[in-house]
Amino acid sequence: MITTFRQEQLKTVPVLKAGYIVRVHQKITDVSPDGKEKQRVQIFEGQVIATKGGKAMNGTVTVRKISSGVGVERIFPIHSPNIEKIEVVKATPARKAKLYYTRTGAEANVRE
């Protein structure tokens, strides 16, 4: 486990709370059949259902979205070099710290 890190390795991350709608820009490396690598940015937009570790080096955020009727969840380490940026689309706080109950199909109790 990495115990020391440099200050420039930490990113400036907005305040992320459960219920917020966020866009996570992630760098993806595609390899073509002839061996050439190409980088692109993939955007994952969804609702924050959990955060762990705060803004520390090992902090993560769990984002959930519905894609073609199927729930998709991804856990993003917020200080990963593959994460280009995280932007808050809509800051609607939830009444609970973890929104795992949205997995059952129940709508999130989020204030509009």
TrEMBL record:
GO molecular function list: structural constituent of ribosome
Keyword Methyltransferase: no
Name of the protein in its database record: Large ribosomal subunit protein bL19
Family matches, as InterPro entries: Ribosomal_bL19, Ribosomal_bL19_sf, Translation_prot_SH3-like_sf
Origin species: Candidatus Doudnabacteria bacterium RIFCSPHIGHO2_01_FULL_45_18
Listed GO CC annotations: cytosolic large ribosomal subunit
Keywords, sorted A to Z: Ribonucleoprotein, Ribosomal protein
GO aspect biological process, one term: translation
Family under the similarity heading: Belongs to the bacterial ribosomal protein bL19 family.
Record-linked Gene3D superfamilies: 2.30.30.790
